[in-house]
Amino acid sequence: MDTFGEVAEHLRRATVQVLSEGPQRGGGSGIIWRTDGLILTNAHVARSLRPVVELWDGRRLDARVAVADPRRDLAALRVPADGLPAATAGDSDRLRPGELVIAVGNPLGFRGALATGVIHSVGRMPGMGSQPWVRATVRLAPGNSGGPLANANGEVIGVNTAIVHGLGLAVPSRAVTEFLRRGARPRLGVVLRPVAYDGARLGMLILDVEAGSAADTASLRIGDILIGIRGSPLESMDALSDALDSADGAVPLQFLRGDRRRVREAVARIKMRAEAA
Question: What residues contact residue 166 under an 8 Å CB cut-off, 6+ apart?
């Protein structure tokens, strides 16, 4: 059985730094998922189409984004290398509160930094869709995003993504497996915020529309308020996420614009999943 130090060192070698240049400049961490150059990270870390990956031994490799899912905040990168020290995937469905976990990443410029904690809980987060999250008492900082959250055996059970209410939030490894198998989930390509309209009723205010997205093609605009999908009320991000997950092709959306006196309808063409490479 490997000692804790050996487990930690293997995780450090399987963790990379992901750097994005240009207008979307930034950085974070990534996980060598397969020895043939497949690397997993967060979609918000891989903001450039051509990020640079720095390995534990200092080598820098140009990467390409094979597929990204902003809704689940996952991205698969490809680098031209083989024989890399890949991480071992674990089963997030078997996690229990109180289990020891290890987080590795590149926070605040510290390469391969390690933090430990325990599993706090696993489940849904209000306002963050219907998917489950792994919450742990690990100390994360900017630069940890995209790095591994592993159990005591060094098996990766999550991809560190954010800090919420003082707890580290990670995408479960089971969701990573699904992402690699089926690709990106359907998306509208909008930034939304819940707002009240017509008294106490709730809708989703469009704050931004991604160029070329399904929302853009459907002529939705910043300032529109989404109030329904397929004729059913739309009062939360969770409801929209659930509806998009079951979408296939044309999806009618009801919305308000301008003086908000008339309910309008647009048809969004939801693209099928893009297969992960």
Answer: none
For residue 88, how far is the Cα from the chain centroid? 20
Does 10 qualify as catalytic in the annotation? no
Picking from 169, 98, 95, 164, the residue whose alpha carbon sits closest to that of residue 131 is: 169
Select which of 20, 29, 145, 173 is catalytic: 145
Q: What is the CATH number of the domain that holds 112?
A: 2.40.10.10
Backbone torsion region of residue 63, taken as left when φ is above 0, otherwise alpha when ψ lies between -120 and 50, otherwise beta: beta
* Single residue among 162, 182, 202 that ends a domain in this structure: 182
17 within some domain: yes
Q: By residue range, what is the domain housing residue 256?
A: 190-270
Domain count of the fold of the chain: 3
**71-86 per-position pLDDT tens digit:** 889 999 999 999 999 9
Cβ pair 204, 165 in contact under 8 A: no
Does the global pTM surpass 0.90? Answer: no
